[in-house]
Amino acid sequence: MTALFALATSLMWGLADFGGGLLTRRTPALTVVVVSQTIAVVVLGVIVVATGGFSEAGPRLWFAVAAGLVGPVAMLAFYKALALGPMGVVSPLGSIGVAVPVGVGLVLGERPGMLQFAGILVAVVGVVLAGGPQFRGAPVQRQAVLLTLLAAFGFGAVMALIAEASTTLTGLFLALFVQRVTNVVAGGAALYVSAKRGGRVLPEEGGWRLIRASLPALAFVGLADVAANGTYALAAREGPVTVAAVLASLYPVVTALAARGVLSERLRGVQAAGAGLALVGTVLLATG
């Protein structure tokens, strides 16, 4: 079940990143984060009430609060990076953050077997190569790389924190709700400060009309991201964190393939090879 939940995480994160990257090409990244997470809060609130999740409140929710504070910073940096550079180049660098939860797993005493260790190495190399990373070029490309590295370690921290935020399924719903409420409060405060300083809040073309028209896409991004956090927490609970984290980090391959299918971004030879290595690493992890 660990492999299944973690691969579902990769699929949902990959599609959410693709959708978020598209939206930020017309709408300010911070607005995308706040609106998409607000929609997620509403849906999660209904689920928590329906399942009686508030009865699971306890000290562990501080992990969810911490994840909620780190998350908007990571998402904002990543969406800005996706808007600056080709998604197939930027997205794989986000997987470097897998070092955080893997490191946590190792500190907690997890020791992958030889096949799993080989799978971790192969999968991480494959994910990075799948984007055909380009480190030469215009300053915009270097800025995108720096933003992505910031986002990567933020995402890794969120993965580690949310895995510790609950011990039951109803508790997980509550933890995700608290995380998203914190996201909205922190992101909303940053959006307010940005607006007071003259920053752009609405799209230059379309304004509120474009926001309303984009609500289905914004809802998808917010809910897919929430679902991915949930399935990752389940994956980390069911099996080794080191395995769950690496399999969940395959989402850049999904983003790159989505960019290829929808935006016709060409996959170079190194990207195809990287996707193949990621697949091999997945098989090794799942069978090890």
From TrEMBL:
Does the UniProt entry include the keyword Transmembrane helix? yes
Spell out where the chain crosses the membrane.
32-54, 61-82, 114-132, 144-163, 169-193, 214-235, 241-263, 270-287
Record bears the keyword Membrane? yes
Pfam families for the chain:
EamA
Chain ranges of the EamA domain: 3-130, 144-286
Question: From what superkingdom does this record's organism come?
Answer: Bacteria
Q: Which UniProt keywords apply?
A: Membrane, Transmembrane, Transmembrane helix
Family named by the database record: Belongs to the EamA transporter family.
Protein known as? DMT family transporter
